[in-house]
Amino acid sequence: MVVKPTKAQKKIAYDAKLCQLLEDYTQILIVAADNVGSNQLQSIRKGLRGDSIVLMGKNTMMKRTVRMHSEKTGNQTFLSLIPLLVGNVGLIFTKGDLKEVSEEVAKYKVGAPARVGLVAPIDVVVPPGNTGLDPSQTSFFQVLNIPTKINKGTVEIITPVELIKKGDKVGSSEAALLSKLGIRPFSYGLVVLSVYDNGSVFSPEVLDLTEDDLVEKFAAGVSTLTSFALSISYPALSATPHMFVNAYKNVLSAEKTKEYLKDPSKFAVAAVAAPAGSGAAAVAAPAKEEEKKEEPAEESDDDMGFSLFD
Length: 310
Fold this sequence. Notes:
CATH topology of the largest domain: Alpha-Beta Plaits
Structural class: alpha+beta
CATH architecture of the largest domain: 2-Layer Sandwich
Number of strands: 12
Largest sheet: 5 strands, antiparallel
Radius of gyration: 42 Å
Helix content: 40-55%
Strand order of the largest sheet: 2-3-1-11-12
């Protein structure tokens, strides 16, 4: 006769197993296991077999083991796991690619009926069409204000109806109607909540980032850093080339100013060479007008009664 282990023995074995996994693996997926059955969990374990191990357990036990193992080994990075152990969660220890393991976990979803009192994870819409129900079942549709008609001795839904909204609890009438229609609106499986990688914890959305996304984000960060460094005149590496160019422009501007101060005649030359409509052209214009005004004065000398033949 096989003797079943006691609760104390089970706790000791669980602690030893979790501690060994923490030693052997540096990558952990923290997953939500709401509404996941034992058969479904067994299928997930088989699908991940090879480089990943799924471990479920009570949060209090997992937190206690993680804390004690951290104190024993002096590795404080394990403590970042404790705030993540909230709700019905489990741990997937893996040595494989995190993105591939996450995608593999997402494959094992099973359809589930809408049970009374369950919080809907998605909107539930009943499509139009023939339900196959006899006219005596119209009371269900009337209670839920679903427009119907009798077609060839069966109830037919006229328009699509949003029966349950995401976040609402499933009522008895909604559950009964969906059951009669054979609709299993929900699907459940392990959902990755957080990722632990060598002491770092991040959101699973990070796993979906591509190289192009990373390059784009890096370029945007460098641009922001450069603009900020230029605004406060801080010699950051990305801002240094711009600072050199701006400084060189300032030097050139100062040299031209010195030349003009040494030789003011260059102002006049610059004014004549300036294009029409500019400020320099406006300065040169009065000089030309003065020259034109002097010409009539020379002509008046010839008109004072003298002639070349006198």
